[in-house]
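Hello forum,

I keep getting stuck at the same step: I have a sequence, I want structure tokens, and every attempt I make locally crashes halfway through. Rather than fight my setup again tonight, could one of you with a working pipeline run this one for me? It's a single chain of 130 residues.
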Amino acid sequence: MSLPPDRFDYSPIIDRPRIAWPGGARVAFWVAPNVEHYEYLPRFDGVRDPWPRCPYPDVQGYSHFDYGNRVGFWRALEVLDRYRIRCTVSLNLSVLDRYPEIARAMLERNWDFMSHGFVNTAYLTTLGDV
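Reply #2:
Ran it on my machine without issues. Output:
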């Protein structure tokens, strides 16, 4: 079955060629941590963002993410460095501006970046047509 150009044609696993991983490895291991920013006072105007994402302010949600950026990220980094694991980070883009130390640490380790929105407290569906 042929699909539009931005999609892959259907291919059942029984008809695919065998995957050969480097060094004869039997599995591939991919680490993709979320590194995100959660606003303490998210914007909510009832028009552009018609549904509040959370109670206002969401102290519990904010502290969860704030701990991650202040402590959790750096503790995880120690383990990843010890085992020389290179990551693909699932990243809120605002992290790059708000936490330059985190941005620098990821760049120094040559991590790949995969966008995960701007902040965790704003829906992308409210941005309108591009």
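The CA atoms of residues 5 and 23 lie 33 Å apart. If your local run keeps crashing, start a new thread with the error log.
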